[in-house]
Design a protein that fits this description.
With about 150 residues, the chain is mainly alpha-helical. It is built from 6 helices and 2 strands. Strands 1-2 form a two-stranded antiparallel sheet.
Length: about 150
Amino acid sequence: MSDQHHAPTSRSKPPPPGEEEASAVLKLGEFQEVDTLTLSEASLVINALMTKRRKDRKDRNETDVLNKTLDYLDAFARFKQKENVEAVERLLSARKELTKFERAQIGSLCCDSADECKTLIPSLADKIRDDELQELLDEMAKLMST
């Protein structure tokens, strides 16, 4: 039996699973400051990457999981045209009082009303007035129909 010594890892141990919470107070653990994409942005990025890989004939790595992910994004991404995805991102990015996570959730859920949005994203409650949120949602809705 050998006595092996391992070098210490350079990363701290992640918090135990289940410590993350997206409620009235966001507790996103190691993901707190991570850039977040809407489903439409993720679809745009992954589809662009796959198009480039196919063009370069490097599509050998298309897995079942990747194809299922693309199917999911195609079904649930609300904005299909690149211009509209970018316009929504600009609208959301202008709301500096909201976290990246909250902006991505608003852009992915595309709620009809401020009340619905605040119910699904409880951390918005004291960050944005209902009339301002409704105006944002209405602007996004216009982009869904074009």
